[in-house]
Amino acid sequence: MAILDLNDSKKVAAYQKFVREDPRGQVTQDPLWGELKANWGHVYVYHETDGKIDTVLTVLTVEAVPGKLLGYAGRGPIGDVTNIQLIRSMIDEALEALPDNVFLIRLDPEVSYSDALNTAYQEAGFTTRNRAVKNMHGNIQPRKNVVLYYDGRGEGASPITNEVELMTHFKRDYRNQIRRAAKDGVTVTSGDTQSDIEAFFDTYVMMAAAQGITHRPISYFLKMQELWQGTGLFKVFLAHYEGQVIASGIGFSYGDEIWYMYAGSNRQYAKHYGPYAVQWEMLKWGLSLGKIEYDFGGVGDFVPEDGLYKFKHGFAYHDPHAEYIGELDWVVDESGYQQYIAQFN
After folding, report:
1. What predicted TM-score, i.e. pTM, was given to this entire model?
2. Does 331 lie in the same domain as 280?
3. Catalytic residues
4. Gene3D superfamilies under this entry (predicted)?
């Protein structure tokens, strides 16, 4: 068990290699994510067996209640999360390196919910936040996600090995809309340049305005592009129609998964189905890399009335719903924790 020394380039490379190549690897556990979150503190804990990293815990810290820090391991740890004794020891290691005013270490690994795992963490002293949290925004990361499984899961599904099989995996009207976009002259490009980010951001702002929600500043995405450019782990997809970028998406490739993380669209061009064309190209990217999962991101619930689910489900209607374990909270300061949790009640 050790804390990663960011000045040790060899060990940093080994840490990143594990996070990027482990089947359950996640971009939010990469030290680059700590660089992206420039206003957050960070500590990187790793465990080795026979000199090889087999578990990592990236914890970023931010003031979440006055004078007290939340320690958040986004989509972490990466490793065997059923080994709760190991995870507890890694938390202790992190706390030794973090400031004394941390009130909470929060884990939310991308592992399926089960009563057994939930109970095991509770019995080990964790506070778990999953099925009792009814609001999608009651957790930092959504617990319910729409996922397409290239290896063929769910009733009526079969392994997807080529683009024809991928296309026929979608609902019929989705296939028609992808073809309609192509017939109308919509083309999709992908890249990782500053100009790609600038074009994405225009549609991202449009979408946020249309939905009445806030959005991140362009500086955040430009920093993202700067950090991941040339890695092959990050791509910006842009749908073009008659000289206009009408839809966009940003995806990350880590472990066995593509994570569709951000999107944008110009509703003036909705009839040309730019978002469907973007998804088609992003899903083909995952297929070309031999991925097992394509994560469309979170939904409020697995019901047609949920707008996010309604769009995403059509691509993955054969696939089982992905319900994750949720937040596993190791409470250090109960008063700070209660003050924090009250914000979500």
Report:
1. 0.96
2. no
3. 37, 108, 216, 311-312, 327
4. 3.40.630.30
CA 125 distance to own-chain centroid: 27
Q: What is the DSSP letter of 206?
A: H
CATH of residue 240: 3.40.630.30
**Is the same domain home to 295 and 204?**
yes
- pLDDT tens by residue, 147-157: 999 999 988 88
- DSSP assignment of 99-145 equals -TTEEEEEE--S-B--HHHHHHHHHTTPEEESTT--SGGGSSS-SEE
Inter-CA distances, 43 with 5, 22, 187, 292, Å: 9, 20, 42, 30
Q: In this predicted structure, what is the pLDDT of residue 134? A: 84
Which amino acid does the sequence have at 229?
A: Q
Same domain membership, residue 186 and residue 318: yes
The pLDDT of 87-95, averaged and rounded, is 98
Q: What is the pLDDT of residues 317-326, one digit of tens each?
A: 989 999 999 9
* 219 shares a domain with 94: no
Q: What is the pLDDT of residues 139-176, one digit of tens each?
A: 999 999 999 999 999 888 899 999 999 999 999 999 99
60: helix, strand or coil: strand
Examine the domain organization and report whether 79 and 114 are in the same domain: yes
